[in-house]
Specification:
The protein has 105 residues and is an alpha/beta fold. It is 35% helix and 27% strand. It is globular, with a radius of gyration of 12 Å.
Length: 105
């Protein structure tokens, strides 16, 4: 299941996780974000307990988007042990995200 991240729970869910965490920074009005949404859903189903797959709506939660320099959406950030380790701006093939996550598991 894809988790909904907010500014209030970002630190707990993302930065304190003992698993790799993929965060999709998106907005409802963003066409490319809608293209990425099914990929993110598939990743959450495939990685299950091995990784945390999450989405953060930048329209309602801007603190961490700003903190990590998210200027364009969709942007996918991948964290491990609370550190930003990968960044993908724009929509990429599903295999790109799978490779990045598998390298961290």
């Amino acid at each position: 299941m894809t988790l909904e991240i907010t500014d209030a729970n970002f630190e707990e869910v993302v930065l304190k996780s003992d698993k790799p965490v993929l965060v999709d920074f998106w907005a409802a009005w963003c066409g490319p974000c809608r293209m990425l949404a099914p990929i993110v859903k598939e990743l959450s189903e495939e990685f299950g307990e091995k990784a945390v797959i999450a989405k953060l709506d930048i329209d309602t939660h801007q603190e961490f988007a700003s903190k990590f320099g998210v200027r364009n959406i969709p942007t996918v950030l991948i964290f491990k042990n609370g550190e930003l380790v990968e960044k993908q701006v724009g929509v990429a093939p599903k295999s790109t995200y799978v490779e990045k996550l598998n390298a961290l598991i």
